[in-house]
Amino acid sequence: MTTRCQKFAAAVGVAAVALAGCSSGSKSESSDKIDVGVLVITMFDPENKVWLDKEQLPTTVEVPGAYKPVRCNADKLCVAETGQGKANAATTMMAILGSDKFDFSDAYFLTAGIAGTPPDQGTLGAAAWARWVVDFDLGNHLDPAEAPEVPYGYRPVEDYNTAAYRLDDALVDKAFELSQGVQLADTPEVAAARAQYPGQEGRKPAVMKCDTMTGDDFYSGKPLSDTARYIMELRTKGQGVYCTTQMEDNATATALQAHGYLNRYLSLRTMSNFDQPYPGQTVVQHLDSSTGGFELACENAYTLGKVVAGYLLKNPPQR
Length: 319
Description:
The chain is α/β, with parallel strands linked by helices. Helix content is 34%, strand content 22%. It has 10 helices and 14 strands. Strands 2, 3, 4, 5, 7, 8, 11, 12, 13 and 14 form a 10-stranded mixed β-sheet that branches. A hairpin with a 4-residue loop joins strand 4 (70-72) and strand 5 (77-81). Helix 1 (4-12) packs across helix 2.
């Protein structure tokens, strides 16, 4: 039996039906590619859900090898969820970028996710546009007690071609300019949580330009935070400032580099937690605690990401 959508497809074409949201499967059966203006990259359900809840994204595209389907609309905005950690992010991004279902010729790529932050740099709910994306894991990690001659127990060994990426300065500067004056959400609960850290009382979420550390481990504690700061300094030859920690961005950048799109990539990370406990709190208590920063960071990632994505959709890359 011919369905109403099938009749409509015969009249106006499968691609139009897909954009109208008639069928999530119609697009995959079409030879037409979706023209992507901005691909927003999220890592797990809460980051992704805020975009799905607040944007109209009627086209669902199944991509073999990707963690979740990509959702798109007629304004050329697409949102992907990669899964957490470098393996998931690399696999999903390579699947999406290599898919014949999309045209990325005029696309920008925007990670919009949450992160940890050292309390002497950021604060809960704040946001950072990364200039450098650096890998925490690659190299020799030694027990500092057994190798006291090795600073922080870390030796870089080699660069692996993926240990550090410098993102496009002009693009990062533009994103910072567009978002600097945007009002970020805050709550009394989060204000009370941040006030337990020295120097944090009275701070408000703001937008920064600094640098992000990628590691598959979710670490907690000042020694590990100091190690991340040291690795950032080594890998960037003193140019980077460690201010966020997350689990995917080097993998995402590596996939984009492989496809020639790294110069169109932005990493936005909003700060959901500190990377160490407050005085008197243990690292286990720190990891098990809830501050309200998680929900706040997800909301602020969308708020800022939406502003910048809107600009990029109207101003495609100059080629």
